[in-house]
């Protein structure tokens, strides 16, 4: 793999994704990694990410500089560029000139292999205080800016390169070219990491892991479980049974999509559990968000366990016990839980298919190394319908945490209709790519006066919460065109009798979260 060393900035995951977009497999590692650990991973290249601090700051993230002695092609970015400069004998100075945001960079000559094919003057995205004042011996300066005499450098013999700016962000005009130049031209790596190869590789691995045992999988209706289930099915066919719990908190058409379209396109053997009454029974009278989440999580596991036990008994009777459970864990989950960065538990997220203690299952997690966009691509190649693969993230507790107040069947029905209209109109307006997700929230305990026809109404408001995001950790509210908002508002107030007001949430995350509960 290409190792992306994470110095604690949010840019590291983005770099890892850009490397994969260039067709090369990448893996994130913490900056505390030692030279031996790096050597053991046998990387084909290393990229040092940006970081929040100055190399001179107290508590600045450290790095085992003997890693440079391993002679692995290396690209330093921003903080990583400065770490590299300092370790190899250059100087990093506090110039007092901060550069932040869009900056003009000028290539020296043709910019070397790293900047080859990009224009002499280009717009790059900067975010730094210190600067590299002198490149290490043996290095050529490849670009400069007004404030930074050494904005990029390279040593072609050692295959060491660095840039002060952030080529991984879309605001840097030729960022992806630079990353590809480093990978393909400087380090000589072929672009052979494709979703087709990932599928092949995973199928072989799953077959080996499972043998002739049986496997179950919990389908949530979301992208991750849909793709992991389909992938496992592709590997072992009817040794797999998928279980879908309908908790009554789903969106309009979701169950049908899973039961009809998903099954038709994948051939997965599916059992649906009707659990609406049980869930709504336990949610009656509950308004506290965390309590709702706990109840939904617990009931989900109960419903799933019940079917699981039945299947286990059946399998035992037939002499091929169930030994594995499929989970749609993604790479960001793995990185976050292994990173130990002490992120506060803001909301108790629950993932489907929590393991009961007394059942001894192994886990199959075929998406563990993948990012969401890669998972979608694999889903498409497996033939899963776009309506499922392209689906926006939807929380496990479903509409239950989008009704502010008690969750009841009637309220769910109202919200389901409004939500369907919003999804329809956003898709019709071509906004699906721009919008990460758009929760529709029913303020069920709030009423306001309206007028419709000749009559006074006293109905509920809904809140539209369209957000743009790369990873849901941070988000900004999406500037949806007024005409689209007008259409949504018109349709909802006309078509959903109990709603007489449509409002827009214009808060970023932080300080707000994406969901309201
Ligand atoms: P927040 O509201 O914390 O949401 O900004 C971040 C992302 O996570 C989704 N979300 C959940 N997903 N179970 C899930 O599987 C949950 O309990 C849950 N709560 C929030 C949310 O939709 C957004 O994409």
Automatic annotation (TrEMBL):
It comes from the Bacteria. It is an enzyme of class 6 (ligase). ATP binds at residues 220-226. GO terms for cellular component: cytosol. Pathway: Purine metabolism; GMP biosynthesis; GMP from XMP (L-Gln route): step 1/1. InterPro entries: Class_I_gatase-like (IPR029062), GATASE (IPR017926), GMP_synth_C (IPR001674), GMP_synth_GATase (IPR004739), GMP_synthase (IPR022955), GMPS_ATP_PPase_dom (IPR025777), Rossmann-like_a/b/a_fold (IPR014729). It catalyses: XMP + L-glutamine + ATP + H2O = GMP + L-glutamate + AMP + diphosphate + 2 H(+). Its EC number is 6.3.5.2. Keywords: ATP-binding, Glutamine amidotransferase, GMP biosynthesis, Ligase, Nucleotide-binding, Purine biosynthesis. The keyword ATP-binding applies. The active site is at residues 78, 166, 168. One of its GO terms (molecular function) is ATP binding. Residues 193-391 form the GMPS ATP-PPase domain. SUPFAM superfamilies: Adenine nucleotide alpha hydrolases-like, Class I glutamine amidotransferase-like, GMP synthetase C-terminal dimerisation domain. HAMAP family: GMP_synthase. Catalyzes the synthesis of GMP from XMP. Homodimer. This is GMP synthase [glutamine-hydrolyzing]. It comes from Microbacterium sorbitolivorans.
